[in-house]
Each structure stands twice: as C-alpha cells, then as structure tokens.
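Let us practice reading a record.
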Amino acid sequence: MPILCYSSALFGSCLLSGSNAVLSQHIGDLENDESQQFLMDAARALVVFGGRTPSVVACDMHPGYRSRSLAAALAAEYGARTAAIQHHHAHFASCLAAAGHAGPAIGAILDGTGYGEKGEVWGFEIVSGSPRSVRRHFHLEAVPLPGGDWAVRNPAVSAVAYLASLLGERGEEAARKLFKADLPELEMLLRILAIRDSGKSVPPVSSCGRLFDAVAAITGVCRENTYDGRAPSELCALVNDQDADRGRRQPAPYAFAFAGDAIRAAALFEGILDDVARELPAALVALRFHATVVAMVAAAVRKVRALTGITAVALGGGCWQNEYLSTHVSAALNADGMTVVLPEAAPVNDGGLSLGQAVVAATPVNPPEAHRTVVFAP
C-alpha cells in the first residue's frame, strides 16, 4: 500500500501518494473564513483527484496556526491521523523533494517566521539530515521581540529589539535617535526589553526576515511592512542595482562571530550604525549587509561540512527569493566544492511548504512518534 498524506499549510495544500505529489494553487493567509473554507475545499478536491482516502493529515506544528485546527477537522473527516511538522524541517524536505535529492544534505533555511521546538521563533537555521530527521547546528543569535504581528508590520520594532538587546546603552541611544518620531511606543518597548530576564519574557526570535526588517528600518529604506516582505524586498532592490553597477567587486562584509551554536550579530549592528553615522548611502549599507548574510551562511555551512562530511547544501525558505543571496551564496559554496540544491518543482517559500510537510509525514521514523527536529549545540 502506498503511503498517502494530505498536508495543509498556510499557503496551500499537497496530496502525496507514493512518489507522486500534487500541490494546490497558492491560497494565502488563513485570516478569514473565506480563505479557510477555500483551503478545505482545495484539500477535498485533491483527495477526489487522487482517488484515495488520506491516512495522514499533516500541518505546521505552531499551536496558534489556524491550519492546525483545520487539519484536525480533515483528519476526523477521513479517519486519518495527524502529524505536526516543524516549519524548517518541512522547508528542508520540500527543497530536497522538489530537486529530486534524497539526502543527506546540509540545509540553509532562511525565512521570516517558523515555530521552533520550544516555542521560539526560528528563521535563520543551518541544519543537516534528511526528510527522516534533521539536526540544527547553527542559528542566528536570538533576541526578544515583543509585539507579534505588530512587530512584523513595523520593522522599527525589530530594529529596536536588535539594537537594545545586542548593543546595550549604545543601542538604546541609537534607537531613540532613529525612531523617537516614528515609534510612539519606543520607551515602552525599551522597558519591556530591559525587564526580559525578570520573568516577563517575550519570545526569542532568530529570524532572517526580522533581521532584514531591522536593517531596512535603521537605514530608512522601509519602516512599515504594508505587505508581506516589503522591507526585505526593498533592501534587495537597492542591492541588485548596486551589485550590477559594481560587477564582480564585492564589498567587505560587516564583522560577526560564532558563540556555541549562535551566529552573533552585535558587530554587524555596530558596523551599520557607524556607516549610518558617516552618512554612507543606504544602498551601500544594504550591500554590505547582504554580503554579511552571505558570509554568515557560507561560514556556518563550512563548519557543518567539517562536522558531517556532507557536501550537498539545500537552500530553503522565502528569503532565498532574494536574488543577491541565492546567487552569491551559491557561488561561494560552489567555489568551496559543494553542490547547491535548489527546489525546481515547487516554490522555495511557504508556497512549497505543504510538499515538505507531506514528505516528512510520509517518511518512516524509529520510533514512529511525532517527527521532531534534533536540537544540539556543535
């Protein structure tokens, strides 16, 4: 009997039977009843199309996502079991499946928001493994980010969180200078960050998307995300123009460091503040920042290769839609003799997430309980 899974995600669905997968159209966020009903209808249409009743209904492991309750309803409807899949494990598996690569591989998974193993918000993960299991080796240094969706809509909130958390008094002073006029909640935000260790904590965030938001706000490129990914997109547009003008000459990246399993970003923000104070054009600051992210990923991947001997690298998550990052990271890894794996048959962003969820849910594990990412420090 072939393993058959239906997987619901925030942005679509996928029906997997044996080695054949069919993805639905892009559906979008499940913020209203109409989009939720559309997702359910799309799922049922895929089941009719496949001609088989699903044995598993998979979804994101985030307990607050609406897709999780919809998956439970569908599982009850079909007499199936449910499987909650970690977000970045799904991105990793989606990339491998869409490229026809069975693994093992190293994964550089960069995106905006993904629920971590202990309730953290992940989004800058260097992992290794296969659809069966994944190990998280390195991640961007996490900072507390108050506000949830409010922070996502307001890049200045991410900027304040990074500045105050990583640079202390210098960061707080810079935040006041940069954002006092635009962020009425600034002092309240600084107080929340100051008491984060006294039992009134906020979720730690290690997200590439929020890192881009912070830099876009500090440089004045974008201080309001009026649509998903606006700040990173505008930074990327500036950089692509600069990169074309510079040809093959790349700027020096800002400094960063490794501490255990964290990629520390304090020196990055110190360098950005220094360049902003020197009134360096925002486009040049953005270009140096992009070069730094490239250097971070390449350095972390090299460390994982040294630990594991794996030379294939899968790039998954929405941040790889950034042309500069995908081009320059691929070039750096290829120059080191590594093979870069990019998804060819599914979107690299959350549009392809349901494929990864289905593949993970359909992969036998021992023991056969919930699919979980193995977290460890190198």
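A brief commentary: The longest helix spans residues 282-308.
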